[in-house]
Write a structure and sequence with these properties.
The complex is a heterodimer. Chain A is of the alpha/beta class. Chain A has eleven helices and 13 strands. Chain B has two helices and four strands, in the order E-H-E-E-H-E. The chains are: A alpha/beta, B alpha+beta.
């Protein structure tokens, strides 16, 4: 199987990640932050080392404000539900994933208002103007995906965060598709929250995610044992423990630490450049195939991440992906948990097939995939 | 040699504080309190071989929440 579904989760994981998980299961099987014995302290040190590595990768000088979550969705839910209360307003982009759209829909049913800021493919300034129109005095939170998980388009988060700073509104970036690929320097940004999966571009195990919390600490989604302030029935005020009730996923965090080290060693810029070369090559070949439909302009590295949507002939996206699976290629079809983005692309009825390579893919593998797609297109 | 124990609110602050003090050339170690200390949060503290007051000042300058200090002129 040749894997091109890295926008869902990256595979394979680096050997160092696999080794770190095994080592943690073997040697760090103690509860961090709970006990005074050496094993517990060693586990806590590994957890802290991962916080520090994540903070450094995201240009953030506060490792104690790096919160571990089970995935990016949990980080996003923590911010949305912990910051916004009815009847406040939330502004989201028109390309958001259901990780954002479902919690804001719940808020809408509870009395909040939700405003969608339109995204324009060839005009980032127009996108920023959409956000400027959408933000009002009632807006409590602005949410923007850094890059679409359907088509790879990067949103102008730097301009949007400047806008939020001017208006005094907290800003959250969903870095599900950009973490490990695009640079983000949180110390220099006015963004209040960055939510990222550990298991995609950071190459950690599934079941890991991070919330970088520069702004006010959200109310916790989950309350319980944190290992500190145990005599009090109130959740402790300080991060990260405030948002980390219950035992942490130490093997996952150790693997994530190794994944972040892998990314740092290669550098996000080099990873992005390589993956965009594969994506650009695939786009150019697909563009010239009769019967293949693409939905975006050429994915220029300055405005895209390595995610590409297409369809073949009149086949449903699911049928195309199933045929590619039979031929040994793993790609995801359908709506990618992002119906809002598919409405924007005009593909809500059909869905698309999504190609998302990683540093572990070669050009030869992409050529083999393209040959198979061409065969399908000619049938 | 003077020894001080600086009490902090979480294991995160304990590790972060220890690393900060070591970066300032101080000998610092993580310790767990010997008895129940509900008023001191997590029970983790930073043992410092040296000037406890200076260590506390450094930690507070780095926004480490210090809950108390025992020994070396502390309480």
């Amino acid at each position: 199987m040749i894997y091109f579904d890295n926008a869902a989760t990256s595979a394979p994981k680096p050997v160092a990640v696999q080794t770190a998980v095994q080592r943690a299961l073997h040697s760090l099987s103690a509860n961090p932050g709970r006990s005074g014995h050496d094993a517990s302290v060693a586990a806590a040190q590994e957890v802290y080392a991962c916080r520090a590595a994540a903070a450094e990768l995201f240009g953030f000088s506060h490792p104690e404000r790096v919160v571990f979550t089970g995935n990016c969705t949990q980080a996003i839910n923590t911010v949305i539900k912990g910051v916004v209360t009815p009847p406040q307003n939330v502004v989201v982009s028109s390309l958001e994933h259901n990780a954002v759209m479902r919690p804001v829909e719940r808020l809408r049913r509870q009395g909040c208002t939700v405003t969608v800021a339109e995204v324009f493919f060839d005009d980032p300034e127009a996108t920023v103007r959409s956000f400027a129109r959408a933000i009002t005095k009632d807006t409590r939170l602005v949410i923007c995906t850094h890059a679409s998980n359907v088509c790879g388009l990067r949103l102008p988060v730097e301009q949007i965060e400047a806008l939020c700073r001017q208006r005094g509104v907290p800003f959250m970036i969903d870095a599900a598709q950009s973490a490990g690929v695009l640079p983000l320097a949180l110390d220099e940004l006015a963004a209040d929250y960055i939510c990222a999966p550990g298991h995609k571009g950071l190459f950690g195990p599934m079941g890991t995610g991070v919330l970088l919390c520069k702004g006010e600490a959200p109310l916790p989604l989950t309350e319980g044992g944190t290992g500190n302030a145990s005599a009090s029935l109130e959740q402790p005020p300080d991060l990260p423990e405030r948002l980390e009730s219950g035992t942490l996923n130490v093997p996952g965090i150790a693997g994530l630490h190794a994944g972040i080290s892998f990314v740092k060693q290669k550098t996000p810029a080099a990873i992005h450049a390589y993956e965009m070369r594969l994506t650009g090559f695939a786009y150019e070949q697909l563009r010239h195939m009769r019967g293949v439909t693409l939905y975006t302009p050429f994915p220029d590295p300055s405005t895209y991440v390595p995610v590409l949507s297409f369809n073949v002939g009149d086949r449903s996206s699911e049928e195309t992906a199933a045929r590619l699976n039979e031929a040994g290629f793993a790609l995801r079809a359908g709506l990618h948990c992002a119906p809002a983005a598919h409405r924007r692309l005009g593909t809500i009825e059909t869905g698309t097939v999504r190609f998302s390579p990683s540093v572990f893919n070669s050009r030869g593998q992409v050529e083999r995939l393209l040959w198979q797609i061409e065969r399908l297109a000619k049938e | 040699m003077n020894q001080a124990r600086i009490l902090v609110g979480s294991v995160t602050f304990a590790i972060q504080g220890r690393d900060i003090l070591r970066a300032h050339g101080m000998r610092a170690y993580i310790e767990r309190g010997k008895g129940p200390q509900p008023q001191y949060g997590c029970g983790y503290s930073i043992r410092v071989d040296g000037d406890g007051a200076e260590a506390q000042r450094i930690l507070q300058a780095h926004h480490i929440k210090v809950l108390g200090r025992v020994g070396a002129d502390g309480a």
